[in-house]
Specification:
This protein has helices at about 1-20, 25-40, 45-70. With about 70 residues, it is an all-alpha fold.
Length: about 70
Amino acid sequence: MDALVRAHGECLAFLATILERERVVASGDLARMLAEFASVSAAERPAEARILSLWATYLEDASVSLRDASVLH
């Protein structure tokens, strides 16, 4: 199960990168929205909220990587 959760997180980070590149939504904004959704979900669905929170972390890491890469180029 952990591998599946990680794989989905990596896939979301990849998609967030594409969405940011195409100027649909900034990956940092998407990460914050997902983290907020996780927070709202925590009371009724704590297990799902933990997964959503982990995915938000993957997206935030991707956002930082994109920001750092744009400084270098």
